[in-house]
Amino acid sequence: MSGKHLGPQIVPAAAAGIAAAAARIVAGETVAVPTETVYGLAARADLADAVAAIYAAKGRPGFNPLIVHVPDLASAEAIAIFDDRARQLAAKFWPGPLTLVLPLREEARIAPAVTAGLPTVALRCPAHPVMRAVLEASGLPLAAPSANRSGGVSPTSAQHVARSLAGRISMVLDGGDCPAGLESTIVALRADGTWQQLRPGPVTHEDLAETLGRESEAHLARGIEAPGQLASHYAPGKPVRLAASSAEPDEFLIGFGPLAGDYNLSPGGNLAEAAARLYAALHEAAAAPQPRIAVAALPEYGLGAALNDRLRRAAA
Predict the structure, then answer these.
(1) CA–CA separation, 176 vs 193, rounded Å?
(2) Is 241 helix (H, G, I), strand (E, B) or coil?
(3) Is the distance from CB of 71 to CB of 231 less than 8 angstroms?
């Protein structure tokens, strides 16, 4: 079989599949792997050619750095310089959907393309058992951005990955739907003792403030420091209208709570359920016959802040 759009092999995330995925990664290939947030396109973070293959498969701009996934705090401290605040966050939220942007150690074995030339590195210790098993089997830190074409809707199922990256990767490890459904929260810890949330996510701003205190409001423009900061991102390929109370005749309506729509993120108004279903809704809307998409209003507090962040970028 051959063909330009031949889809990747979807392999169940059992022991044999995990071993095969780890072997491909060790050999320098890219493999799509589930995490608790979204599916990641994983490759060894210490090999320049492997990292380049991630950028090529995604069509990702080289100025957009990657998150490095590690199995534990000790592995993370071999790559970045941790202060007491970073250790407190790791103790509270790792393994889990929090990424820390910290100073890169000079001796760290990380390919330069991972950090896009920055003096910092983004690190996460994932909680998903499949990603953790792949990390353990490979014995390597893994760069793993979302497993989709750059700028598009993030994948929360193996089928999403296969459709987005057909002809670009050879293997998807199928661990079912991702439970959180939104990319990790990213926080940068500054040398002057301040901190900045670079991307909202499942760990809320309020969660961070409980450990770190109030976020500084004075931030200098630093450019792109972490994934998810591009103004236009998560795009479904159609115009998106936000805070809709009803649908126009040419719109696919993504509802929330009592506003049912064509696809309801959460009939009960549960933000965690809405987060888990957001990208699936955008994928379905992208495939629908309607040329436009409308989305119901979502609250701005807690996890709603992360949901609205993704939707604003999808609409940009």
Answers:
(1) 40
(2) strand
(3) no
Spatial separation of the C-alpha atoms in residues 1 and 191, rounded to whole Å: 54
Q: Mean pLDDT over all residues of the chain?
A: 93
**pLDDT at position 233, please?**
78
Report whether 238 contacts 291 (CB < 8 A): yes
Domain boundary assignment for the chain? 9-212, 240-315
> What backbone torsions phi and psi does residue 5 show, to the nearest 5 degrees?
-105, 20
Of 17, 25, 29, 122, the closest CA to residue 76 belongs to 122
SS3 category, 203 = coil
What is the chain's Cα-based Rg? 19
Which tokens is 31 given? 């493999």
113-163 pLDDT per residue, tens: 999 889 999 999 999 999 999 999 999 999 999 999 988 999 999 999 999
User: In the chain, what's the furthest Cα-to-Cα distance?
Assistant: 58
The pLDDT confidence band at residue 225, using thresholds 50, 70 and 90, is: confident
Residue 74 phi, psi (nearest 5): -60, -40
The type of residue at 95 is P
Residue 254 has pLDDT above 70, yes or no: yes
Pick the CATH number of 9-212 from 3.40.50.12370, 3.30.70.330, 3.90.280.10, 3.90.870.10: 3.90.870.10
Q: Give the type of residue at 62.
A: G
Side-chain half-sphere CA neighbours of 57 within 13 A = 31
Asked if residue 228 has pLDDT above 80, the reply is no
d(CA 40, CA 106): 26
pTM above 0.85, yes or no: yes
Residue 214, Ramachandran bin (φ over 0: left; ψ between -120 and 50: alpha; else beta): beta
* Distance between CA atoms of residues 198 and 190, nearest Å: 12
How many angstroms separate the CA atoms of 308 and 306, rounded? 5
Position 172 confidence tier, pLDDT thresholds 50, 70, 90 = very high
201 SS3 class: coil
